[in-house]
Structures are given as C-alpha cells and as structure tokens.
Amino acid sequence: MHIDTMETTALVRAEADLEQRYAALQAEGLDLDLTRGKPAGDQLVLSAALDGSLDGDYRTENGTDTRGYGGSDGIAEARRLGAAWLELAPEELLIGGNSSLTLMYLYLLGAHRFGLDGPRSAWADGPAAARFLCPVPGYDRHFSICEDLGIEMIPVPMTGEGPDMDRVEALVSGDPGVRGMWCVPRYSNPTGETYSADTVRRIAALGRIAAPGFRVMWDNAYAVHRLGGETPAPENVMTHCRAAGTEDSVVQFASTSKVTFAGAGISFFGGSRRNVDWFRARLSVMTIGPDKVNQLRHVRLLPDMDAVHSHMERHAGLLRPKFDCVRRRLEEGLGNRGIGRWTDPGGGYFVSFWSRPGLAKETVRLASEAGVRLTPAGAAFPYGEDPEDSHIRLAPSFPPLAEVDRAMEVFVTCVELAAVRSIRRSRET
Fold it and tell me: Of 82, 246, 263, 290, which is most buried with the most CB atoms under 10 A?
C-alpha cells in the first residue's frame, strides 16, 4: 500500500511495529559499514600475481631499467595501455602513481594558483572569483578539492543522461568566473548513469563559449567497471573536441585503483599535447620520475584492454551478488509504496537512494544508532548541503555479502520508520 493512502490508525500501528523491530536491531550491537566504495579482500586477491610478476626482470621492452630515475611520462607499455583505456594517442598520456585524485588536485592547483598560460592567467587572480560546475549528486572528493583551493562550487542537476546541459551552457556562457566542470562520464559516482552522445558532444563544445582557460575535469574512474548488461560506453569526448576545435578544454583521468590494488595502482592523465606539456612541466618540479617498477608490474599483469576486460569480469562476478542483494532488499522492503526511490546501476560502485524530502539525515542517524554506518547525508553535494535532504549513497562493495544483507535490512527499517513517523506527525499538526 502507498504510504500516503494509509489511514492514520494504520500508520500508528505500523510505527509501533517498526519501533519494536528497530529496537530489536539496536539490541544486537551490530557494527556494519556501507560508507565507502572500496574493493573487498576477495577482489584484491584477483591481482595477487602483481607480487613477484617481475621475477628480477626490471627492464622495459626498450631496455630501460625501471628502478632508476627519470621517465616522467611513464614507460611506453603503460602509456599504450592508458591510451587504449582513455581512447587517446600514447603521446597524449602521462602515467602517475596510485591516485588519479592526486593528479586532479595538482592540475587544478596549478591552474588556480599559477595559471595555464602564465602567471596572469591564474584563476585565483582573475577579475571574478573562480567557480566550478558540480553535477549533483556527485563525488564528494571532487568537491573537497574545490573547497580546499577556495574555488566556489555551483551545483548542476544530473538528468539520467549526464548533467543538465541547458543549465551548464547558460552558466558557462554567462559567467566568466566559471572555470570548469567535474564529469564522471560512465557509471557516475554515485548515480551510476552514463553520459549520452548528445551530452558528450555538448560538453566538448563548451570551450567555444567559455572564458579562456576553461577546463572540463573528465574523471573516467569507472570506464571498465561493468556489473552486467549492455550499457554502451560514452562517445569519445576528444573526438568531439577535435571536431569543435576545443582540444585544450578537456583533461582526462583514470586509474587502476579499483582494478588491481586500491592503494598501489597506477593512474592516467590525458589531454591535448599542450595540456600534457604544461602538466609535465609542473610535475617535473615535484618529482624526478614516477614509480616505473609498479607500472611495469601492471602491464605484465594487464598487457592490453582484452586482459583488463577479462580481469574486470572477475571483479563483476564478486560484486554482482552484493548489488543484487541491495536491490532485492529495497524492492521487497519498500516496493512502490512512496517511501523512496533508487538506482539499479549497470556498473560502478554505488547505489543512489532518495528518501522522501527532509528525511535523509534522519535515516542516516537512525541507521548509525542501530550499528550501520552510511556516508553522511548530503555528502554528494557541494559543501555537504542537499537542498532536499533526500539523497543517500550506498556502497556495498567492501563488506561480505552476509553483512551487506544485514545492513540493508537495517537500512530499509530505518527508511520506513523515518517516513512513517514523518507522515504521522504531519497529520497531527
């Protein structure tokens, strides 16, 4: 039955039943965690062959000893892999350490403090305060970078096919302070949507109407992270940029953080030759060269994209039961009762849940007091402020399946209890 059609007496009975169930869950002393999208231990085992893969042979195909200094662009084998990953040419790639987030931060730090075209082009010294467009719900760590650098954030709603491009184009063309935009084009964090062809084409054209130095931060974190189904990959944004003459306006990032070892992978930076040259110059001040030994380990394990896709199918086999569990618990517990809605992603690491407006924080609080930790309500919005107080990000990848199932039992109970209490109280006023 839809919750809004329930008689008040039925609501009161339902609230009493839910409170009894909730108290029983509290009494169990649970300690469960659905906060972050981390690979579980059995996923990490899939890359155990990284250890010992070199067997004393540290030389690349051209004879370079990877134990030495230098090689700021990364070894040729890793650049070929990254180029196939991001659909770029090898010379349009730099290979970094385990974190693409570090590359994103350093790129924006350079643009903001030092300028992409010399000191006078620094965003921080421009005539208007630097602002960034942030599709929401979005990735909290993207927002943390902007907040740390003092870049103002402007939320832009997601549509199911990517950001609302009418809104994006109006903001970019009408405000010279808008310096860029975050994008996660495939299996977006946390909504799981993949950008449509029209969205990609319009993003590639933004450089024509934007202020000088405008950059799209194209974080292709989940490019190879399918869970199942036939969700097509987004179109190649650089192909559209070349057609529009905006090659410098998009810079791309990816990593193996959720492919091999989360804390010991490699990362990719890609873009136009001009962007690559500029970023190489910035990085050269900070390092004499990346960890080429780890790059070589990775290309020995994953020499090409066929190997990557085969490897990721094994990941998907471990992840699918957990996502199926989340979906089953939500469908069985909440159904079409008007209590919430959620995504059923074809890839990535998250399920987005929307409670009735005004109840996300209360749901997270109830879950915490019953022993289930969730990402804070509002985390997927700039400054942690969800204007509807409705969105909750669920991350089922790390706990064992039995713990995911138990956590979702608690979560569904909390969602129901918060909704029933809210409606019952509203009828009393």
Answer: 82
